[in-house]
Amino acid sequence: MKTLFTAIGAGAIALSLFAGPTVPARAAEGASAPPDLDWSFEGFFGTYDRGAAQRGLQVYFEACAGCHSMDLLAYRNLGDLGYDEEEVKAIAAQYFVIDGPDGDGEMFERPALPSDKFVSPYANEQQARLFNNGAYPPDLSLIAKARLHGPDYLAALLTGYEDTPPDGSELMPGMSYNAYFPGHQIAMPQVLYDDGIGYADGTPPTAAQQARDVATFLMWAAEPKLEDRNRMGVKVVLYLIVFAGVMYGVKRRVWAKLH
Does residue 166 have a cis peptide bond before it, meaning omega lies within 30 degrees of 0? Predict the structure, then answer.
C-alpha cells in the first residue's frame, strides 16, 4: 500500500512539473481576448528560443527599460540566455549604480557589475510617478506570470494600440487606446513600431516580431527554470513507467506462485 501511495504521489509531482505556465481561460473584463499564439516554451518539452529571447532583451533595453524596472534579475543571469562572461560584463557596464561609502564616507557611482541587479530607471516610486503623470510603471520581472494569458497578453498589448477609439469614445488626457487593456485606456503610449529596432541577426523588426520577442524574454525572466522543470518531469515520468513495469512483473510472479 505504501508503494502504491508513493507511485501516486510521484505521478502527481510529475503532472505538476509538466503543467507549465498557468493561463486563465477568459480575458479580463472590458478587454478583447488576446490571440492564442504558439510559443517554443509551451508543452511538455518546451524550451526557450534563445535567439528570440536575446532579441527580446534588446527590445527591453531599447524600448522598455526607460520606464520599467526588472528588480529581480541580475546581469549575470543573462549567461543563461547564451551570453558569455565578457558579453555579460559589457552589457552590465553600460549602466551605473550608486555604491559606497568610500574611504571618505561618500557614496559614488560606478559601472554595474554582473552581480548587480538590473538598474532601475528611477530612484523610487515617487520619482517614477512624477515622470509618468502619476502612473507607476510596474516592474517587469514577473509580469509574464502576473497577467492574464501571460505572453499572449503581452504580445497583444504591445501591438493593440489604435489612434482613435473605434467606438468613438473620448480618451482621458494622457491616455492611449488599447484593445487588450482592461477599460481600453492605458497610460503607457505605444512604444513598438515597424523597423523601430535594428536586429543584428537579420530578423525583420516588425512591431509584431518585437512584441513576440520581448514577451519571450519576459517569460524567461519570470520562469527561468522552466526547462529544468520539464527535463525533471520527463525523468520522473520515465521512472514511473519503468517502475510500473517492474511492479507489474513482480505482481505476476507473486500471484503465479499463489495459484
Answer: no
With b for 16 or more beta-carbon neighbours within 10 A and e for fewer, the 191-217 pattern comes to bbeeeebebeeeeebebbbbbbbbbbb
What residues in the chain have per-residue pLDDT under 50? Answer: 1-27
Q: What is the pLDDT of residues 153-212, one digit of tens each?
A: 999 999 999 999 998 889 999 899 999 999 999 999 999 999 999 999 999 999 999 999
Helix/strand/coil for 66: coil
Q: CB under 8 Å to 199, separation ≥6 — which residues?
A: 55, 58, 205
CA torsion, ordered 57, 60, 61, 65, to nearest 10 deg: -140
Closest CA to 23 of 10, 41, 9: 41
Largest CA distance in the chain: 89
